[in-house]
Amino acid sequence: MSAAQLRKDFAVPTNTAGQARILVIDDEEVVHASMSRVLSGAGYEVQSTFAARDGLQRLQSEHYDLVITDLMMPEMSGIELLEALDGEDIHVPTIMVTGYPTIRTALQALRLGAVDYVAKPFTRKELLAPVTRALHHQAEGPATEPQERSSADGTVLQPGTVLYLPNHSWAQFEQDGSFLIGVERSFLSSLGTVLGLSAPPVNEVVEQGMTGIVVTAGCNEQHGVALPLTGTVTARNQETLAAPALLTPQTWLLRLQARDPDSELENLALRDDPEPPGRS
Predict the structure, then answer these.
(1) Which of 8, 37, 155, 252 is packed most tightly, with the most Cβ within 10 A?
(2) Where are the alpha helices (DSSP H) in 88-237?
């Protein structure tokens, strides 16, 4: 597939020079080679560094449209890089790269401001889809989502309480103890027209932070939505699944019986949202 076709398929956002500039930070040469091949082939300008401190120095003096950083690195981790960027008021969309054993830390990164994460090993599509969303998120500006108030850790759940896995999904606590699950506003706004939806069947067990809902958009690219809680699916919104154009940030797609929600609140956020999720 040509770079031009990739640009068409993934609706590649560009800067004024015609290419989005991406900084890859990872201490493994094989990861750099893989990312450079995929991202350059998709028409992006890619620069690389093997240490977060070096990446931070570059970000202090140069403009990048996106940072893709490993979570676990010596001397300075991906989380510490996020904190340093925030402390220096440097605002650049950041995607974390993580392995399965560090999924919980990746979820913490989302709450601290990362726009997404990619789990190793990843395919070309699994890398390009979040890159596209992150660049669209940047183009729309910081006002696409209300600001997170705080971690949801310690929250006393009451009917109507809404918890957020930032830039992915939300969970609304119901009177019967179940949760309604939907897709975040920022996630949907970065996609354009929704063409298709898939979701796990009733009785399937899903896991916090893992892809559960898949949204097909644009030129048939697929985007995985990480779910906010672990539990068993008890119902699906069949009307919306059959008619994807009905999907809005207020639409629930799954009803979930959570396994142990209190233990997972630390990975979720509360938010002052003028348009909270509803039952549409």
Answers:
(1) 252
(2) 103-112, 124-140, 185-189
